[in-house]
């Protein structure tokens, strides 16, 4: 007989938290304040993992999942929680991480940044697998806790044009000679064109090429092929498509990019995030400001547009080349870029970069611990804006900034970059 438990809270992944005989149990599909019948599917030494099989008492914040694949598909984990409550839960995760790991508390909690709740995702990697007993080919995200691919007909978080392509893609690929040698399709939806990058372990035949070209023409997309690493990706058809890119209208910027280069998945929230970062940073003419982990210049170019001398530093030579092209494209001679491994930063290397008035940091999930440890005791940037995709590493770095380097955490808040997932994007302001 399945146990019935009280759900005490939500964890940082959006699972309900219960206790069975004193042992913590994480419950998929249950919300704080609910009473749920659960089925334990895995037992660990210190905790259990379970699914909610019936909700005996529902939370007022419970929502009806919009996607009919929800629960099987692993792409979303929080559609059963009302959208504003999702954001509040992410804010709690941020604050709890700052307090527990960083032992810091922001002076001000920033209002959460919102965007579209549905059909927001402009970037995705869709897996492909030939499975004859399920109709030939599956295209989509992996099933929850599985290497299998969900049997999807559409997706409520992908842009509408991409969502409607899932069934046509299945029909296309099943007829190709290398249908079992296409493991992945990378999606990049720009403002004027959507690009589909097919990862090919075997090249297309001439007949395959004709089918692919016809698909691109019929659906108004551009197809790229990628034989090996991302650097091998190249346009297949049409060759004269619109340029892939996004814009930052507040700053009058056009940002072209290759479909394999990193850009944020949520264009609307990215615009809001850049706008907030620039307001917090407040770049002025005559200031020298570094943008670390700058990518293709998403923050660097707006900083330069405000008149500051902007120095972008990034470990990827490909992204630095793109950032330089974008600076030329947008006529920003005061935006400068260099390649450096910021994970190997030292006090000596940081000092060699020269003095900075302010600093923007936008690292990957692993954070920027070597950067913050390398900040000088005197002459350090007086203001730091830290954009984070992992609240735990932000909190770890905040502890160094506040308790070692003498900064104060003036403000922090979340940006709902990935609605219906537990991903927490955040931004924080440090001053000294």
Briefly characterize the structure.
This protein is α/β, with parallel strands linked by helices and 432 residues long.
Structure description:
The chain has 432 residues and is an alpha/beta fold. The chain has 3 domains: 4-62, Nucleic acid-binding proteins (OB fold (Dihydrolipoamide Acetyltransferase, E2P), Beta Barrel), CATH 2.40.50; 88-116 and 266-431, 3-Layer(aba) Sandwich (Rossmann fold); 123-237, Beta Barrel (OB fold (Dihydrolipoamide Acetyltransferase, E2P)). The chain contains 10 helices and 22 strands. It has helices spanning 83-102, 160-163, 166-174, 206-219, 267-281, 300-305, 317-329, 347-352, 369-373, 391-403; strands at residues 4-6, 9-10, 16-20, 23-28, 35-43, 47-57, 108-109, 123-131, 136-140, 184-189, 194-199, 222-226, 234-237, 245-248, 253-256, 288-292, 309-314, 335-339, 358-361, 383-388, 408-415, 425-431. The strands form 4 sheets. Strands 7-21-22-20-19-16-17-18 form an 8-stranded mixed β-sheet, with helices on both faces. A hairpin with a 3-residue loop joins strand 5 (35-43) and strand 6. The longest helix is centred in the N-terminal third of the chain and has 20 residues, at 83-102. It is flat. The mean pLDDT is 96.
């Amino acid at each position: 007989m399945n146990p019935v438990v009280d759900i005490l809270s939500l964890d940082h992944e959006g699972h309900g938290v219960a206790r069975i005989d004193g042992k913590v149990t994480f419950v998929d599909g249950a919300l704080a304040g609910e009473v749920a019948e659960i089925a334990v599917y895995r037992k660990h030494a210190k905790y259990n993992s379970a699914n909610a099989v019936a909700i005996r008492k529902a939370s007022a914040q419970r929502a009806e999942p919009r996607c009919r694949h929800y629960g099987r598909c692993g792409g979303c984990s929080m559609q059963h929680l009302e959208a504003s409550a999702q954001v509040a839960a992410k804010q709690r995760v941020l604050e709890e991480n700052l307090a527990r790991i960083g032992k810091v508390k922001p002076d001000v909690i920033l209002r959460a940044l919102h965007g579209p709740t549905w059909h927001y995702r402009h970037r995705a990697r869709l897996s492909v697998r030939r499975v004859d007993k399920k109709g030939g080919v599956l295209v989509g995200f992996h099933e929850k806790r599985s290497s299998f691919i969900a049997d999807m007909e559409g997706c409520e978080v992908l842009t509408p044009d991409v969502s409607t392509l899932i069934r046509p893609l299945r029909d296309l690929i099943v007829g190709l000679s290398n249908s079992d040698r296409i493991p992945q399709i990378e999606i990049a939806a720009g403002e004027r064109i959507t690009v589909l990058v097919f990862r090919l372990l075997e090249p297309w035949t001439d007949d395959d090429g004709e089918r692919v070209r016809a698909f691109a023409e019929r659906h108004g997309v551009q197809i790229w092929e990628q034989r090996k690493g991302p650097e091998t990706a190249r346009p297949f058809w049409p060759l004269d498509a619109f340029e892939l890119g996004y814009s930052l209208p507040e700053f009058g910027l056009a940002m072209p990019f290759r479909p394999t280069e990193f850009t944020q998945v949520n264009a609307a929230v990215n615009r809001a995030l850049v706008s907030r970062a620039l307001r917090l940073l407040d770049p002025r003419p005559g200031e020298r400001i570094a943008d670390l982990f700058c990518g293709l210049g998403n923050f660097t170019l707006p900083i330069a547009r405000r008149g500051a001398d902007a120095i972008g530093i990034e470990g990827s030579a490909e992204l630095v080349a793109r950032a330089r092209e974008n600076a030329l494209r947008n006529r920003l001679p005061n935006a400068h870029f260099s390649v450096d491994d910021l994970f190997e930063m030292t006090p000596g290397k940081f000092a060699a970069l020269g003095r900075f008035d302010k600093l923007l940091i936008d690292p990957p999930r692993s954070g920027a611990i070597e950067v913050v440890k390398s900040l000088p005791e005197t002459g350090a940037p007086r203001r730091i804006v830290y954009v984070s995709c992992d609240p735990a590493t932000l909190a770890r770095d905040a502890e160094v900034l506040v308790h070692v380097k003498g900064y104060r955490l003036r403000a922090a808040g979340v940006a709902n970059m990935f609605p219906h997932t537990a991903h927490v994007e955040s931004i924080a302001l440090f001053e000294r």
